[in-house]
Amino acid sequence: MAAVPTWLRRAISDAHGHAGNEFEDVSLAAGAAIGALDAVVRRQERWAGALRQRLALSAAVATAKQAGRVEDESALRDAVLLTRPGDNVGPAGRFLLAWRRLASRPAEDLLTEKNLAAVLEEFGYAPDDEAVSDLVDDLRQLSAGIGMVGMLTGAFTAAERRGFARTVGAWLADALRAQRLGWAYAMPLLGAEAALGTGARTPRLAASSVATGIETDPDERAKGLLAAQARAALRAIDLSVELERRADRLLAVAPKLRAKAADMVVERLLSDDAIVASEKIAGMSDRGLRRLFDRLVELGAVRELSGRPTFRSYGL
To answer: What is the pLDDT of residues 214-227, one digit of tens each?
Structure first.
């Protein structure tokens, strides 16, 4: 995979302190960054699922931080991995479920009333059919030919109008972008930017009169969103380079594996953030799965992510 060109990295770095930059410069950096990421997405690599879920985890950490919680990546990963489907994963765990939903469901299904109602509950909002219906109407209008800048700012405005936090706006913007670009699955990008505080070089993504009592300049807000999108796209590209290297190593050693269902385990590692040895995989016992993971770690093909002697989790 070709590295991001130096000029683009410099342009994105310059856009980070966008207050003194022209709108066109920030827009160019954001467009080029999304274009570079689009090339990665369209390759449809076998490890694309792991990339999306790793980005979802980063977004969930930022969401938890914004909500005043202290859970880090390990705690959020445990909340989901070490519980059975349908069990209570706690407030922070539900944040991760919301972002994993964005990363794993087909992009075309993300903005339905049923899915948005589930997402809002995962973000901690009480059920409100009317608010969801109104939100779907707003998003439908944003999907009807409006430009990328209007789509991004509109997603945050639509969320704020219904009383939702800027994290919800980031989720909606990521879903709308995927649909606009024709991606099969959305990439969680803006969620990891949503916890930024105010500051000269890190303006809040969604400061508004609703949230702060201070009217936000529309042009500055648009530049802030575009700069955040550029940073997020660059972070995703860099992560894709790292995961590609690790995936290549895993695929190189896969033919040496003699365990039952080893191919299925390899596919799970390529498609998710992490799995545990207690995972129910057809044809493998817990003990056999643990031995397989020990072998993969020994071969340098996967990493043990928990740092614990028991209840370990493994991933690229």
So the answer is: 345 777 888 899 99
